[in-house]
Specification:
Elements (H helix, E strand, L loop, with lengths): L1 H16 L4 H11 L7 E3 L8 E22 L7 H5 L9 E25 L10 E3 L5 E4 L28 H4 L4 H24 L9 H23 L1 E13 L5 E10 L3 E3 L7 E9 L10 H8 L4 E16 L2 E21 L9 E5 L6 E6 L1
Antiparallel strand pairs: 1-3, 2-3, 2-6, 4-5, 5-12, 7-8, 7-9, 9-10, 10-11, 12-13
Helix pairs in contact: 1-2, 5-6
């Protein structure tokens, strides 16, 4: 079993360092795997001196953008069909939601079962350790590339102008709402006619240049839109971001992550007012039970003889709503679905300048090189 683990580690590292170095790495791993020097131990809060770090577990962060649309009926909504031939207008206010976008990311969280402390020693150069803000190992003897998490762009509707500012004196002094609606509709048709005459070059007074034409058309469009909304009403939309995190602990995880209601929007998983949004996570390699005999347990208490890291495993991840798959990724990497291997401490002796960059989400090696 020890030989198999060594070979897995060598294969993994050789892919990162290149074929030219595999022979040297093989010799190091074969002759020094059981080195007697010891400067790394299992970490317990408040005990020991040195640099503490964790390997990560991989969690899933689900970011869902939903759009809230609020409808407010216009003052002349009951006359929309009569004067504007619009039969799709209602007189009732409403608020509706729709799912606009879903994005799934993996993030690293500290694995409390894989906490270690590096005790500083004059015999090695493993003191330059870079960790994340939550103490997940990121790099040794080098700096990891900076990663910037992009913010989501949430959109809002443009402001709606109040159509009443464009009502003429004749409209405002009309004796009834029906008459006001009739005169407002005529004003809309007059604006449309003016636009057509200008575009055809038949207006009594034509714009002097292209910039003037653009300005006049923008003002006419603005007036027409505001007056029309007095019949059709206004719809104001606004994006909202909802985020939830799930940490799979088993090789198959099926759970309700959120719920959605067309009237109430995104709800928590336990709010039965909405329909469930399901996630299914299935490891591509079933986990094997780990057994540790008494001798191995004693060795483990002494701490690893080198830097432990993860070789992550793949999983299939799918998110479904109303029977439809709205997200799917069959190659998502998870620390807890893979294995843990050892990077022997000889690589960090003073005469060997080894630099390692780890993936803080999976705990795997992203890059390794040495002088």
């Amino acid at each position: 079993m020890e030989k198999t683990n060594r070979q897995v580690t060598l294969n993994y590292i050789s892919r990162l360092m290149g074929k030219k170095r595999i022979i040297a790495m093989a010799m190091l791993a074969t002759t020094l795997w059981t080195a007697n020097s010891q400067n790394i131990d299992y970490y317990k809060p408040g005990e020991g001196e040195g640099i503490a770090y964790f390997l990560p577990k991989t969690a899933i962060e689900i970011n869902l953008i939903a759009t809230k649309v609020k409808y407010t009926p216009g003052d002349f909504c009951q006359y929309a069909n009569r004067y504007l031939k619009r039969n799709d207008v209602t007189s009732e206010s409403s608020t509706d939601w729709e799912i606009k976008k879903i994005e799934v990311r993996t993030i690293g969280v500290p694995d409390s079962t894989k906490a270690y402390i590096i005790k500083l020693s004059d015999k090695n150069v493993m003191s330059d350790i870079e960790v994340t803000e939550n103490n997940i190992i990121r790099a040794i003897n080098t700096s990891a590339p900076k990663t910037v998490k992009e913010d989501y762009i949430l959109e809002k509707s443009e402001l709606h102008e109040n159509g009443k500012k464009y009502l003429t004196e004749e409209i405002l002094t009309a004796g009834s709402t029906a008459k006001m609606a009739e005169l407002t509709a005529k004003e809309i048709y007059n604006i449309r006619e003016s636009k057509n005459l200008i575009l055809r070059g038949q207006a009594d007074t034509m714009p002097k240049d292209g910039e003037s034409l653009k300005l006049i058309m923008e003002n006419l469009n603005k007036q027409e839109k505001a007056l029309t909304e007095m019949f059709t009403g206004t719809r104001v939309s606004e994006d909202k971001l909802f985020t939830t995190v799930i940490l799979p602990e088993r090789e198959v995880t099926t759970a309700t992550v959120l719920r959605f209601s067309k009237k109430l929007g995104i709800l928590s998983a336990d709010d039965l007012a909405g329909e469930p949004i399901y996630i299914n996570i299935e490891s591509q390699m079933p986990l094997q039970p780990v057994t540790v005999n008494e001798d191995e347990g004693k060795k483990k208490k002494k701490g690893p003889k080198g830097i432990l890291y993860n070789i992550p495993g793949k999983a299939n991840v799918a998110i479904k709503f109303k029977g439809k798959t709205i997200f799917e990724d069959n190659n998502m990497l998870f620390a807890q679905f893979g294995t843990t291997e050892l990077l022997v401490e000889y690589l960090f002796k003073k005469k060997i300048n080894t630099r390692v960059i780890f993936d803080s989400v999976t705990g795997g090696i992203q890059k390794i090189d040495k002088d």
